[in-house]
Specification:
Elements lengths: L3 E2 H9 L1 H9 L9 H17 L7 E2 L8 H12 L6 E9 L2 E11 L2 E7 L7 H17 L3 E9 L11 H4 E5 L1 H6 L1 H15 L22 H4 L16 H9 L5 H7 L5 H10 L7 H6 L9 E9 L15 E9 L3 H4 L2 H5 L6 E3 L2 E5 L9 H10 L4 E4 L5 H7 L11 E4 H7 L13 H9 L8 H7 L4 H26 L1
Parallel strand pairs: 1-4, 2-3, 5-6, 8-12, 12-13
Antiparallel strand pairs: 3-4, 4-5, 6-7, 8-9, 9-11, 10-11
Helix pairs in contact: 1-2, 1-5, 19-21, 20-21
The chain binds iron/sulfur cluster.
């Protein structure tokens, strides 16, 4: 049986304790977020499509972990079978380390190793992945002609059926992985020794808990840290916070003694102590809309960026509008063009004062959103939203506005709250509408925004209906927040 795999090796590079926990106590792991699950699924879908670049291969994927030894033996036998030209998920094991290689392609008397990534660019983690795989392949004695990373080509524009040869591009990392072989060998030995320990290694919490990836054992390792610890503040960087913590300043009171009482860090600690949120009202009010708009619409756009382009004329990860919810305040209802209403499906109207449009069942209709938005937004003086993206840029990109001199102003609560230094312990992991709801209203009725995308792309009528309801629920929180802060 193997001790390390690609994922446990990468985990071990981040933190030895995370590796140990993953191997010995995986049940203590935090639940995967919807966003993480969607990312895994995206990777699988792209990987299967990439097989078409080197078609007619033999799939070596095991049905269960117990099949690893059998599949590793079959992979090995196939290497010497001239009939086998391509293998998918070929399994190799060397020095207790098991890898599954996306594609192994016969190249004369040697083999081309290919690892597929569902992203538009390569990161350090991908290079580390490849280095481990090369270490195992070389250790097993597989003669390689090259090792390449295959990833999505951002310049590819779909025109008819997907042309996989254009959709992907490849980069040789052979020089890099050869150079890293000793580094990998040392780490493999180190990490194997960690797994063999009779108990978990002693590792203090630290910057590695969030970097390069949020560790999924934080629920376990951080359980003794008080929920109101200054370690959950965001005004100072993680490195400074942990430095203070390990230099003996491990309570809020001690930290407050050391820092300027008017600093942002001090305000955040006070918010933690009083179990509330902090906002710089002076800045907030300076950002308030002036003069007060007579008509306001709350807009929630549901944007979708499929890794593999779905529609002709689009590129990988190109954005489309899958749906929007628009909730207007006064004056607007009378202004709705009755002829437009009759052309909409009954389902599109969710509530008297809330307009919902979607193209869940047929994404090729997505550009209908543009005309509808141009018409509907023009009835308002101000458009309020909550999005980490710049909404004006999004509207410009889709030509919903031609330039910024339109009759309404965009007011993005996300940007406004960040500018006003809004803080609540929950936002340590980023400001989301869900966390904002918890902070301002002590409620948590919302969910991860990514869930709406999953529902909207589920090919399921119940999912579609749920996505519409969730879009409206999000918009209602935006409206409630705006009203609480500015009215
Ligand atoms: S939470 Fe931090 S200390 Fe604990 S396993 Fe993860 S990275 Fe290591």
């Amino acid at each position: 049986m193997h001790i390390l795999s690609k994922s446990t090796y990468i985990k071990g590079l981040q933190c030895e304790k995370a590796l140990y926990m993953q191997k010995k106590h995986p049940y203590l792991r935090d639940k995967l977020s919807i966003e993480q699950r969607a990312k895994f699924q995206r990777g699988t879908d792209v990987g299967v499509l990439a097989h078409e670049v080197f078609p007619c291969g033999i799939d070596m994927s095991p049905n269960s972990p117990s099949q690893f030894p059998k599949k590793a033996q079959e992979t090995w036998n196939n290497l010497s079978n001239p009939e086998v030209k391509v293998m998918y998920e070929a399994i190799f094991q060397y020095n207790d380390t098991l890898i599954m290689l996306d594609m192994l392609v016969r190249d004369g008397d040697r083999w081309l190793a290919v690892e597929v990534k569902s992203s538009l660019r390569l990161s350090d983690t991908y290079y580390n992945d490849a280095a481990l795989q090369y270490y195992v392949l070389h250790g097993c004695g597989v003669p390689l002609s090259d090792f390449r990373l295959m990833y999505l080509n951002g310049d590819y524009v779909k025109d008819g059926p997907i042309d996989v040869k254009q959709l992907f591009k490849m980069e040789s990392v052979m020089d890099y992985v050869v150079e890293k072989e000793d580094f990998v060998a040392q780490n493999v030995e180190r990490l194997k020794a960690v797994v063999a320990l009779p108990h978990s290694p002693v590792v203090n919490i630290g910057t590695q808990c969030h970097n390069p990836y949020p560790c999924d054992f934080q629920g376990h390792c951080w359980k003794l840290i008080p929920k109101n610890s200054f370690l959950f503040t965001t005004a100072l960087d993680d490195h400074t916070l942990f430095q203070n913590y390990f230099n003996g300043m491990n309570t809020n009171a001690m930290m407050l003694q050391q820092i300027d009482s008017t600093s942002e860090e001090a305000h955040q600690i006070e918010a933690l102590e009083t179990n509330s949120y902090y906002i710089d009202y002076k800045i907030l009010y300076s950002l308030a809309p002036q003069p007060k708009p007579k008509s306001v619409a709350y807009l929630n756009l549901l944007l979708h960026r499929p890794a593999v382009p779905e529609l002709d004329g689009t590129r990988p990860y190109e954005e489309m509008i899958l749906a929007f919810a628009l909730q207007g305040e006064h004056e607007y209802d009378a202004a709705i063009d009755p002829s437009l209403l009759t052309s909409l499906r009954r389902d599109d109207m969710a509530a008297e004062n809330c307009f919902v449009w979607d193209c869940f069942d047929d994404h090729s209709r997505w550009k209908e959103a543009i005309g509808l938005l141009i018409e509907k937004l023009s009835h308002y003086e101000q458009i309020v939203c909550f999005t980490p993206q710049n909404l004006t840029t999004t509207l410009l990109r889709h030509e919903i506005i031609q330039n910024q001199a339109v009759g309404y102003k965009v007011f993005n609560l996300f940007e406004v709250l960040q500018e006003a230094h809004f803080y609540h312990p929950a936002i340590k992991r980023g400001l989301t509408l869900q966390r904002l709801e918890t902070a301002l209203f002590s409620e948590s009725n919302l969910f991860e925004h990514s869930r709406i995308i999953l529902e909207a792309t589920s090919n399921d009528l119940i999912g579609y209906q749920q996505a519409r309801e969730d879009l409206i629920a999000e918009n209602e929180i935006v409206a409630k927040t705006y009203q609480q802060l500015f009215k």
